[in-house]
Predict the structure.
Amino acid sequence: MRSAFFLLALLIGVHTFHIKNKDKSKNHQEITRMAILRATKNVCKSVEGFKKPAPLDVTTLAKACKKEAFTNNFETGIKIISYYNAQQKLQHPGSEKHHFDSETFVDGKALIINGKKNVINSIKSNKCDDARQTLGEILHTLQDFYSHSNRIEMGNTKPCTALINPEEPIPNPADIYTKTCDECPEEKCGAKILEEIIKGKILTSGYFGKTKPKGKCSHGGTLDITTGIEKGWNGINKDYYSKSSHGGQHDDAANVAIDVSVQLLENIWKSIDTEDFCRLMGLHTETPKGEWKAHISFFSFKSRYDATDDSNVDI
């Protein structure tokens, strides 16, 4: 029954950027691939004779990094990291902190910070396979912050650096007593964020299932019973374009999720070195090992979108 529920949830959508293709929407694997390509491009700029790859893809980037012989390993490395990103949804479907649901900002950040430390330590201990798994997992949590919180609704177009910097506090999170969304007479909705929350730049995220306190926002979606059967799409998630109340802001959330993923990758790079970063990504003689072939056929690990990006992300 548990496996059947997970499959049902995956098919019709639970709470996260999707891991299957949705029209007009970027899934976790596409966000991760774009971020890896952009970050690796920035890392390889220091390579002598580097020429900007165009279009930006695995083949052109491996050549620009002077590691053309490892193109296949690079592709495998990206797929492995993306696989473990997608698995985070299946391994922790009801865990609030793994998806920044229910205002679990401190616990979600702790997962990312501790995971980043483990990635760096694994690389330094020559355990790149372990590092790729952990990296994929924390990228999933990091990316979900932008689709599940009201960070985008408050007009923010830049990453929240507090999520990857241990010393920087989470900016102005709501407490459990703060009302964040309008209530309906039947108390079965939660998609309209209160004006004072937006103006006050108070951070919140949607609640999912039976745990929603009165006056809080709902995550939304067909399985979110906090909104009521007749209002099943009401909620503040921006996981993909759909009937979801805030789905129209999916692109904004996905684009910032790509940017913050690049920041995390470059942050890790600055804690190791260029050669070890390339090894982590698979641009190395060592063939990456680990799962990446999906057990469910509609997983996709290739992007439908152009990964080219002329911006320079600096942290």
In short: Residues 1-14, 311-315 have pLDDT under 50 and may be disordered. The longest helix spans residues 71-91.
